[in-house]
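> forwarded from #structure-qc
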């Protein structure tokens, strides 16, 4: 529940702060709601990539006046933007080579998620352990796969199934989060060691997490039954 609330708050925050950031010849243009800022590239002294990649990846503009620009853009993949800025202002091109940028670019390219990925991962896949354990419980408790339905009706039968599904969905969400946190740190450390291997490290993380989730769970349950 906490995760859903935080996810919802993040989405709302993004909707409220959505803006368009573009690189044009000689200037940067930031547009948000009823505001428009045109920043001469010649007045940008440095670009500082966010040290903390939360709630996402972004950067701040250090002006030659000594102040930071009042808004710091957050973008899913900062590399194309920083490269475009670097072509217009070579003095700030080093920002595109920052390890955080390599990390964010690899994640944006190789770890894209669509709505159906979440549907499969957290709605449909939990049905696998749910069906197995629910069916086992029906045999052990009531003596058959539909004995509870015959004895008490459809309502209690579906309620029992829903309880199992909610339980295993919660367990798998926690498991997936722990996996993701662990292997994101692995990918992050790998990028700092060798930024040019950021994509390879990202592929390793994505494949390993998928195998441990979609194969590891059924394998673990099978081992429990065999034991």
């Amino acid at each position: 529940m906490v995760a859903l609330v935080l996810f919802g708050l993040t989405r709302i925050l993004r909707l409220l702060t959505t803006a368009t950031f573009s690189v044009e010849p000689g200037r940067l243009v930031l547009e948000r709601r009823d505001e428009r800022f045109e920043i001469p590239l010649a007045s940008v002294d440095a670009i500082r990539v966010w040290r903390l990649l939360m709630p996402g990846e972004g950067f701040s503009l250090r002006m030659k006046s000594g102040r930071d620009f009042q808004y710091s853009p957050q973008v899913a993949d900062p590399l194309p933007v920083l490269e475009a800025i670097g072509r217009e202002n070579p003095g700030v091109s080093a920002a595109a080579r920052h390890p955080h940028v390599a990390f964010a670019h690899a994640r944006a390219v190789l770890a894209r998620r669509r709505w159906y990925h979440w549907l499969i991962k957290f709605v449909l896949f939990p049905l696998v352990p749910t069906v197995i354990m629910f069916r086992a419980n029906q045999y052990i408790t009531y003596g058959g796969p539909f004995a509870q339905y015959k004895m008490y009706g459809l309502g209690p039968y579906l309620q029992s199934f829903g309880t199992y599904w909610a339980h295993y969905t919660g367990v798998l969400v926690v498991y997936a989060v722990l996996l993701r946190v662990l292997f994101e740190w692995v990918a992050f450390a790998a990028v700092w060691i060798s930024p040019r291997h950021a994509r390879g490290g990202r592929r390793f993380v994505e494949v390993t997490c998928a195998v441990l989730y979609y194969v590891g769970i059924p394998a673990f349950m099978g081992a429990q039954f065999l034991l």
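QC bot note: Residues 41 and 89 are 6 Å apart (CA to CA). The mean pLDDT is 88.
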